[in-house]
Amino acid sequence: MKYLVISIFYLTISSCAAQSSQEIRLNKTDYEIITIFINQMFPENFNLLSEVSGDNVIKRFIGKYQDHLKVYKNSDSICRNSKDIEKLKISCPIADSFQMYENLLSDEDISYFHGTYSHDEEFEKLNINRILNKSSMLVVEGNYPSLEILNIYYNRKGDLGIIAYRKNYNKNESESNFYILKKMKNIWWKPLGSFKL
Amino acid sequence: METKYAGGQQCSIKITTKIVYIDGNSVLVTEYSGCDDSPMQKKARSLTAASSDCPDGDDGEVAVISVTKKAFLIENSIISTQLDPCSSQILSELKNLQQNDMAMIISRFGTPNTVYDWEIKTANPLINSNNDAGTDWKRDSNDNALDYNYLTHIKPNYINQATQIAIARTILLEMLHVYLISLVDDALITGCSEVTNFPILWNALVNKTYNNNPNRLHHEEISRKFITLLQDALKEWDGAKEFNRYYEDLAWGALECTSTFNLLYPNSSTSRNRILNTNRAEDTNSMQGGVTPKSNSCN
């Protein structure tokens, strides 16, 4: 009986500890899209950081998405309506390039993102070897250049994956952006790329 | 020709222009004066009959006046109320240089289509607080970018450790970022084609597989077109106390990752280390690789 009480007490403590850390485990899909992202974006070698910061950047993602959608709608409108050939030469290719943002997210997706990802998160460390096995890149020693995964988001359906990342080229120069992937036919991930602006 | 412009919120400006001939080339001379609520008077020279695909004035001379006036208004509308006193003083001096002041530099870049708003403040850059400075669109509470509205952050720690000429260079470089972003806005909002004069930037906008960092693309464009402008402005700001090479070396600061820099100054070149060390010395106000900073710190 004494041992049973101790065991129950221990299990309770363990459970509380697990709940308080709220650590998000990276699953097979996470590794799948991270590997595609790295192989698409970074043919050069870099220092891949194993820490996933978990920074809450979903608001910035939605803001940037809406900026890109606005660019598409505006350029598309000029492209359809202007009679100025010089403006058409600018606005039509921009509309063509930004068309991918049309209908990429639904209002439901945006509400879901706001409701689901409203705070910083804590991720387990990346298993870098698991990524390197499917990549030709080398992880270099030292601080720069370095790539840090900030967060990973999915829409409600799970057919849109977003990787928030930061790449530090040197002390003074870094890139912070979002890489978007769309799941096709519920089978494969199509890399759509990072935001343009 | 005399034009009176009652524009902006800050003052009324009287603009007088005339065309003179130097070495057989026509040069438009523009003088600004009578800024009613400001003691500042300015004399600026617009160098060329700047071409523009999207001027909002008439053809020829009027278009050139319009361009210069816009640059002047851009310079005058810079918001710097949250800039530290030392950087604010440097900014003020850059705005009042005789030959290479900020309005003239903007005019020399090309043709701003729209008078944009630029705020510069001393604070950690939002995108990456590790960077010494950063420029982006100003954003509303939903993180949506505001058209023709830009915001630059200069890191407080950088202000505390860098020399004044390094801060001047940083302000000028961020001004170039703002200018390039405004060209992107011009293209996205109005269909103006000025951005096509910066093909790296233009290609990135229309390539469907665009994955590059806009900041890096800006640096590539700046390294190809604006080194001399940066050099001239820094030299004038500093009173031309040093050899030209010093100012040119400083103009390369923050552009050391560009393909242009690597082509001109490969790893094996002796100039490369000198440029890197000169910039590091001024950025940190400390001796770097045997190079001593020449400018004073803010402290």
Automatic annotation (TrEMBL), chain A:
This is Lipoprotein. It comes from Maribacter sedimenticola.
UniProtKB/TrEMBL annotation, chain B:
It comes from the Bacteria. Residues 279-299 are annotated as: Disordered. This is Uncharacterized protein. It comes from Maribacter sedimenticola. The lineage of its organism: Bacteria, Pseudomonadati, Bacteroidota, Flavobacteriia, Flavobacteriales.
